[in-house]
Amino acid sequence: MPLKHRPSRSPGAARERSFAGLTSNNSTKIKTGGSLLLTLVGVAILTVVAVTSIMPKVAAMVEIGADRIPSTVATVRQNAFEAIAASGVRLERVPAEQISQAVGEMKLDAASQAVLMQQIKAGRVALAFVRLWDDQAEDEDVIQVASGGYSVAVSLTKMGSRIAIPLVGTPITITGQHDGGGGITAGMETSSGELFTPVIGVGQTLRIPIL
């Protein structure tokens, strides 16, 4: 049987086809890789632009400092406090059976305690409880509370602390003594609800009429 002749393939031709295929694949990969790189670069640029555009807004939110209070909220606090303070607030009076203990916790000397107890019994002075706390970040804010000739420093915490103060018919005052950062912020419990101070600075004094 005659053998059919198969045309021989030259090694050069085979290599040429192989090189051609390799070149074609690489070319595709290079094009694809280039498109991906351009896409990633574009995304990175858009991200930088977006972050840069919102930075001023973020700065405005924290411009008051460590307590991170937006300026609009600070204005609302100021207006709300002024509206409430203008009409006065009521504080919880110390029950008669707790007066001796409350006076003993006021850190007065023995003579001052005796005088205060006499004034309370005579009805010239009333004793009230007030709870104060830091309603924002607990950052070691300290205020000075004064009323009826009595004054005490209060370190503000999130948990808060209750103190007894004498009432003689004049407003109590709250003065900023130490600012842990971003202004001093305090919450105050009254008989009619919670009262929040404006953002106050060291040395600044608030007057709160007591009913």
What would your notes on this structure say?
- Helix content is about 40%, strand content about 25%.
- The chain starts with 10 loop residues before the first helix and ends with a strand.
- The model is unreliable at about 1-35 and about 45-65 (pLDDT under 50).
- The strands form two sheets. Strands 1, 2, 5, 7 and 8 form a five-stranded antiparallel sheet that branches.
- It has four helices and nine strands, in the order H-H-E-H-H-E-E-E-E-E-E-E-E.
- The chain has a domain at about 70-210.
- The chain is globular.
- By secondary structure, the protein is an alpha+beta fold.
Helices and strands in order, then pairings?
Layout lengths: L10 H51 L9 H17 L4 E2 L5 H6 L5 H12 L4 E8 L8 E6 L2 E6 L5 E7 L4 E7 L8 E4 L2 E4 L8 E4 L3
Antiparallel strand pairs: 1-2, 2-5, 2-7, 3-4, 3-6, 6-9, 7-8
